Amino acid sequence: MVKKMVAIGGGTGMPVLLRGLKELPVELSAIVTVADDGGSSGKLRNELAMPAPGDIRNVIAALAEAEPMLIDLFQHRFTGQTGLSGHSMGNLLLAAMTSISGDFYNGIKEISRVLKVKGNIYPIANQNVVLHAEMEDGEIVTGESNIPLANKQIKRVFVSPLPVTPLPGAIEAIRQADLIVISPGSLYTSVMPNLIVPEIEHALREARGKVVYVCNVMTQFGETTNYTAGDHIEAIHNHIGADIVSAIVVNNSRIEQDIRKNYAEEHAAPVVYDIERLKALGLEVIEADIIDHHQRKLRHDTHKIAKLLYDIL
């Protein structure tokens, strides 16, 4: 019987994770944030009152098995001084298909069919949602793109308008999954918007499969400055409780000095893996070399992480 795996997240970490997982003999589902409000996504969202398509577009491209030229076309971003400048073709296609079908999720399904997507893709909501952050000093910052710019300690994030209603297929996928993976990515603006939806939280709590968090390798300025792996986990605990995530995957390979230097210019540093604290928090700690050593920008290695997760499964 084919095992079922669910990945939850968004941002740049999610597609990296999915590109490797789609090669595995698993039934795959991706649950993706739609809280983005910057760039092309933000423009389409504001002008057409649709969920933000950017993270969904990247997940479709990662899971697509169509001809490479079609995927390149889907990911093409217009430049220059025209009205299309900044928009990606995929975002425009998602907007058009949403208009034709009258429904964002139906639009995703149709484009997924055309691009031969492996697996199911569910937006966290079929509606336009706005992300907010309450800072430790009490300030409320509205908008996914504004939250890291505030450069303050984040106390919690929340979404509006309520209620946010996830798709029934997403809830069922979590409940039936043999393994649920919380993907790496911006902790508060890509990962947390999915987890804090009450029905998603309840489904995770009732899930029969293990819930594994793949921890970020680097901190992110304005979101997780100076965060250790334990701080990442405690942030998740503070939002959805301490009894959902049962394991964490951390990188144990050396990060080269020139890469550290490049990230230091962005006020980012390697995440410190405080193993004893993680164990004290009740987590199984899975250490491995999970990064791609051949890129100047630090990324999880799609094949290494996929193999590790399949071994867990």
Automatic annotation (TrEMBL):
User: What's this protein's family per the entry?
Assistant: Belongs to the gluconeogenesis factor family.
- Role noted for this protein: Required for morphogenesis under gluconeogenic growth conditions.
Translocase as UniProt keyword: no
What is the name listed in the Swiss-Prot or TrEMBL entry for this protein? Gluconeogenesis factor
What does the UniProt entry say about where the protein is found? Cytoplasm
**InterPro entries according to UniProt:** CofD, CofD-like_dom_sf, Gluconeogen_factor
Main subcellular localization, coarse class? cytoplasm
Q: Which domain of life is it from?
A: Bacteria
List keywords of the entry alphabetically.
Cytoplasm
